[in-house]
Amino acid sequence: MNLIEKTAAQEIKFHGRIINLRVDDAVLPNGNHATREVVEHPGGVCVAALTAENELLFVRQFRYPYGEVLLELPAGKLDRGGEDPLDAGKRELREETGAVAASYRSLGKLYPSPGYCDEIIHLYFAEDLTFGDSSPDDDEFLECERIPLARAVEMVLQNEITDAKTQVAILKVAALQNQ
After folding, report:
1. Neighbours of 50 (CB within 10 A)
2. CA-CA 20 to 30 A from 177: which of 2, 28, 53, 98?
3. 140 labelled catalytic
């Protein structure tokens, strides 16, 4: 069965600093047309940094769309123009936590909202950490903390950590550590 939709036309409705919103006319596999609203996003990274004491580095920060403070692994968006995801992950880890890792391993990629957004989040596992000063962006206000990996897994399973990229990265790291 053919499942592929083809784009007949695109119109940018909003062009922003971080996202764009476009509306597409899509041709469905049966030849009918449908409207598809797409949020264009440059993509992001998330880094699960594990200390020698088997603790993950986290940040707490206010997330405006939800109106609450979330507990997340260090993360950020890719710069427009195709920034290398690993370079972005290294930058975000250092800026948000002051940590630099000697070893990085890809944990794959995540499509957070494939129904309407083209964002891809690249996940990394970082080890062999050294620490310096953090240097968050001027508009970033966050608190860093360390949580043992086993406790972080419990927090995911008890829905105490609600951020999707953080949940996935924690569970992947835990699975790799148990191999």
Report:
1. 21
2. 98
3. yes
Q: What is the pLDDT of residues 93-147, one digit of tens each?
A: 999 999 999 999 999 999 999 999 999 999 999 999 999 988 888 888 999 999 9
Residue with tokens 């290294």: 90
DSSP per-residue string spanning 104-140: EEEEEEE-S-TTTB---EEEEEEEEEEE------TT-
What pTM did the predictor assign? 0.94
Which of 173, 171, 176 lies closest to 155 in space, CA to CA?
171
Does residue 80 carry a pLDDT above 80? Answer: no
Q: Quick check: 92 and 74 in contact, CB under 8 A?
A: yes
Nearest to 123 by CA among 83, 167, 169: 169
- 166 membership: H or E segment, kind and range: helix 164-177
The residue to which tokens 């594990």 are assigned: 50
Instruction: Fill in the amino acid letter for 54.
Output: N
What is the average pLDDT score of the chain?
96
* Phi/psi-derived region of residue 53, left when phi > 0, alpha when psi is between -120 and 50, beta in every other case: alpha
- 3-state SS, residue 43: coil
Q: Which of 140, 143, 145, 160 is catalytic?
A: 140
